[in-house]
Specification:
Blueprint lengths: L3 H16 L14 H14 L4 H8 L7 H13 L4 E4 L4 E4 L12 H17 L1 H16 L3 H8 L16 H15 L1 E8 L5 E14 L2 E8 L4 E6 L3 E10 L8 H5 L13 E7 L4 H6 L6 E5 L5 E7 L2 H8 L6 E5 L1 H19 L8
Antiparallel strand pairs: 1-2, 3-4, 3-7, 4-5, 5-6, 8-10, 8-11, 9-10
């Protein structure tokens, strides 16, 4: 089968061969086909480290072509659409930045990462999942045969995440807010908070957090003079505003989300909360890195105590309840008391028969 690279310069090679004679070969020496010389030249250019003289040797160590012939070969490649260039600073020849003939071959761990990325795209779905899937498709398109087969085969990995679907107006708002953040331009929109209160907002978007199946914008609220978090499915009538802004140097979206279970609660203060987990869930608790800062102590009875650094203790208490009776908040007393109060409320709800739905 004729390769795409061969097809691209075969006609140019044939026409240039008929336009001029090849350099004389030593008597008795086998003449290297021009197509082979051009292929060697493409490989040398892809290496990007050869001078004019080393290119000659790279093409034919026994009978290097003349400078005139080499320049004619380079012209042939240019006519065929290969973007080679000469770097005056280093005196070397190579392809334009970002262009290469090499196929991308991924190692086992890199392929695992690509498959994990595809799994995340499948789990997320919607706008964000589609964006991730487009990236993985482009990586697969420039990969070698082995990587392509593995990446396009039936998935053997499932990354389970909440599914943040944005449709209709929230999807349009997400696109606009992303553009506003890239271009550092303020936006205005109508907003409805979790209690149903409506307001008009004028904000500078700093970044985004995907959590619990929802997408949030972290922004500076110009009207309130403070940083706020907005659920995008509660945003309507988003439009660009004329004001420009700069994101503070000390803002980092990873740092913002690091001490919050959901990634969106940042009070500025921190609390160190100690939890003790039973041997039944100790291994799972070690693996669950709910916040970035934590320290672990293994106890003789198989339990594990973990100290979490959190920005919102109430949010953390609600998360802690998912472990049921296999975990308890040990300290500080105020947070333990809050957990006890919440447990009593839950117990009271279950002490009575379920309330029938309103008609």
């Amino acid at each position: 089968m004729t390769t795409p690279v061969f097809r691209r310069f075969r006609s140019a090679a044939e026409s240039s061969s008929s336009a001029g004679s090849a350099p004389a070969q030593p008597r008795g020496a086998a003449k290297t086909p021009k197509i082979a010389l051009l292929l060697r030249l493409l490989t040398a250019l892809d290496e990007g480290r050869h001078t004019l003289e080393s290119l000659k040797t790279r093409l034919d160590p026994e009978g290097p072509p003349s400078t005139r012939s080499l320049r004619r070969y380079l012209a042939t490649l240019a006519e065929a659409g290969f973007p080679w260039r000469y770097d005056r600073a280093t005196g070397t020849y190579g392809f334009d930045a970002g262009y290469s003939l090499r196929r991308l071959e991924l190692s086992g761990s890199e392929l695992f990462g690509l498959l994990a990325l595809r799994g995340i795209a499948t789990s997320l779905g919607g706008n964000i999942g589609a964006s991730i899937d487009e990236v993985t498709e482009k990586l697969t398109a420039v990969s070698g045969a082995g990587t392509t087969r593995a990446a396009t085969a039936k998935s053997s990995m499932r990354v389970h995440l909440a599914d943040p679907h944005l449709e209709g107006e929230p999807s349009v708002a997400f696109e606009l807010l992303q553009r506003a953040q890239r271009e550092k331009q303020s936006v205005r929109f109508a907003y409805v908070d979790k209690n149903g209160r409506k307001s008009e907002r004028h904000v500078d978007v700093y970044g985004f957090v995907v959590s619990g199946g929802r997408v949030y914008a972290v922004a500076h609220d110009r009207g309130r003079g403070a940083r706020r978090v907005f659920a995008l499915d509660n945003v309507a009538a988003a439009r660009m505003a004329p004001q420009r802004y700069t994101i503070p140097d000390d803002f980092d979206i990873e740092g913002f989300a690091a001490r919050s279970v959901s990634g969106i609660m940042d009070s500025g203060d921190v609390t160190r909360v100690t939890m003790r987990f039973s041997p039944v869930v100790a291994r799972a608790a070690r693996a669950d890195r709910v916040v970035k800062e934590r320290s672990l102590v293994d106890l003789p009875d198989g339990c594990v105590e973990i100290v979490y650094v959190v920005s919102d203790p109430s949010e953390f208490v609600r998360w802690a309840m998912k472990w049921g009776a296999d975990a308890e908040i040990v300290a500080p007393p105020t947070v333990r008391a809050e957990a006890a109060a919440l447990a009593r409320e839950v117990l009271a709800r279950y002490a009575e028969p379920a309330t029938p739905p309103a008609t």
